[in-house]
Amino acid sequence: MKLLLVDTSGPVCGVAILDGAAVRYSCAVTNKMTHSVNLLPMIDAAFASTGLTIDDMDRLAVVTGPGSFTGVRIGVSTVKGLAHGANKPCVAVDALEAMAAGAGEFSGVICPIQDARAGQVYGAAFLPGVKRPQRLMEDTPLKLEEFVEKIRPMADEYLFLGDGMPVHRARLEALLGDQAVFAPPHLAYLQPDSAAYLASLEEKTVDYRELMPMYLRAPNAERNKKLTEAAREQK
What we know:
The chain is α/β, with parallel strands linked by helices. The chain has 7 helices and 10 strands.
C-alpha cells in the first residue's frame, strides 16, 4: 500500500510517502514561510523524489489535529482537494498519537502536549506499544496544572514532547521535578513518517467529504463571535 501523508497541525510542515513498510520520502520544514506557501511545493518534491504520482497512491492521509486551527485547516483542505481530484480515499491521523508513535522506547508515560495558549495545553498520555502507542488518556484541552494532576498517578516518569514542551518546560520541572523528562530536539515535534505509519494501520478510510479538522475547542473567531453575541444580549 502506498500513501501520502501531510501534516500542518503545528509549527512544522511535514510530508511523507510510505510504500508498504518502507518510508520512501519524509521531509519536515520549519521556516518563516507559512504552511500554505510550503505545502504544495513539498508535495511536488515528494513525488519528484520518489518518481511516484498521486495516481500511484492508495490513500491520502492528513493530521487533523489537535493543533493550530489555521494550520490544520490548510492540511485538511489540501488533502480534500487532492482526494477529490484523484478520487482517493482519506485517512485522518491524530497529532498527539503520531507524536507518541515517534517518541521511541521509554519506560514511563509518553505525554505529547501542544500549546493551546492562555496557560492551556492539548494533552494526552500513552504507553509505548508494539504496533502503535497504547492510549491512557484521550486528547483533552486543560490547564497545565490540571493535565499534570491527571497524569501524576500513571507512572513515576513522564516524557514530554510537542510544541508545548519548550513553552511549559520550566513549569513542568517545578511541578514534577526529576519525574519530567524532555524529548531531544529531533523527537520533540511530530515526525511525518510516524504519522504515515499510523495512517497505514487504519483499516477504515473516509471519503474526502467526511474529512474534517479535529477541534478540541472552538476556534478563536468562533469563540469571540459567541462572546460578542452574549455581550449584546446582556445590553
